[in-house]
Structures are given as structure tokens and as C-alpha cells.
Amino acid sequence: MPRSFPPTNSETEVKICIAVSTIGKTDRFDLLLDSIQSQNSSSFVFGVCDQSTDSQVRERIHQREWAIPTFLTTSDAPGLSAGRNAVISSAPEDCTHFMFPNDTSTFGPNLIQQLSHEAINYDVVVMSYSDGQRPRYLFPQSTDSLNKENIWLAIEPGTVLSSRLIHSVNGFDEHLGTGCDTPFQAGEGSDLLLRALPFTPKAKWVPDLVIDGVPQAYSLSQKQRRNKQLMYGRGYAEVLRRHRYSSIRRTLSILAPFRHINTWIHRSAFIEALYLSVGRLQGGFPFTRSIPFPGELGWPG
Length: 301
Prior knowledge:
The chain is of the alpha/beta class. The chain contains 10 helices and 7 strands.
């Protein structure tokens, strides 16, 4: 039986909190700040969880003049999920929705104004997320309900969530996602949406609204890129396992990285596919974690 969100006034004005968690190492953070300051709407707030080890993030924010409420916070636990949760906890109570751009994201000056219209009466607004060249996933404009298949098209930097949805599922799982304290370095957004499905959240898919990001391999060395594939594969498959996707589905996800011909032509592409595939094997089938894979492919001791 579907559960219900806390009641809300259907005509409540949308107030968005832009929630960013950063360790301060990206050279694109200033571009994100430029995007936020260029918005032609003032009906939003901006919160940053500073997980850096120095004062650069705070200095880069404080040296700017802000026309909107801006706040800084920190987190006790490491990782992107913990940082986002810290911003959510520190946000003004009248924030109705949250968006979660990466510290490498940028967007146009009309975005918040458009979202303030699109998000009225909706718990989830899914936008296009571009990796710098093209949208990561394609989907039509619709108000289709969320389900166990289409939630994978919603990428956190391109998704707006209502405050009532977030609080009903107790936020992001801090043991999933980039920088967390487990080997599962992805999947936190999909996990949150899957936990929200029993509440039947109202969703809107708006591909014309775009968040610009960077390719997954941005600024990474070859070794770092392969390790990222491994850790992302573990996180993705752990979410499949937790939410009881079938063994067939989990097996197909392990084979999927090899479906493109390019993978079989170029050695580097094959190796990256192998790292992603092994990560999905380890995440989806826990008994494989004791298999002695070579090097970084082995399960952390």
C-alpha cells in the first residue's frame, strides 16, 4: 500500500536551495559560482558543505558579493552524500526543493526561474545532464511516474527533489557515493529515489532544462579513471542488490560494459570496461568479493 508524504499546500511558492558539497579541488568551482550569481531570480538560497582541508572554498565564497542568502557548513562524515545531507540540515525551513549540482556544474541564467515554475506541485523534476558534449540520457517531456527502471535516467546534478521527499526518506545514504567510507562510490541518488517509490512521488521530466557538467574522466589519470570505473560499478550494483533487482538483471549489468564494438577494438577501452564489470560483479554478488582479483580489482581488505 502506498505511503503518503506529509500534506502540503498545493499552491506553495517554490523556494529552491542549491546544495553543493566540495573538497575544493576543481578549477570549475568558480564557474559554478558565476552561474549561481548570474540567475535572474532571487527566490532561492545557496548552501555549501566545505569538505576541503584548507580555507580556499570559504575564501572564494566570501570574496564575492551575494544578492541571495548564502551559507556554509561542514560534515562529520566524509563523502558527497554526507555533504549534501549537511546542507539539507542547515537550510532554511521554508526551502521547498533542493537541487544538487556538482562543483563542476554550470547552468544558464534562467534556470532557477524556470524551475520555480516547473517544480510547483512536483516532488521530482528531472532535467537533462550534459557531460560537456551531449546529454548523458535522452527522455521525452512528460509527467510519468517514477519506477524501478526510469529512476536510472535521473542523475543527481540534474534532479530537483522536494524537501518533503528528502525528509521522508531521511536524505542520502552516507555509505553510498563519491568519497564515502565504503567501496560503494556511486548510486546514492538512485537509492534515494528507490526508497521514495512507496510514497508515489509526483515527477516531471523536463529535457529542455539543462545542467552542464564534465565527462566522467575529467582531470583523471588513466589509473584514476579505471579505479573510478571499479568503484562506480560497485556502488551501482550494490543498489541493484539492496533493492532486490533480479539476478538476471544484475548479471546483464555485468556484461553491459562490453556491448559496444569500441570496447573490443581498443585495449584501453576494454580494460576500463573490465574494471566496471568487475565492480558490478563485486557489488551485485557479495560472494565474489573474496575472489583474489589482481591489483586494485581486489576487494578492499
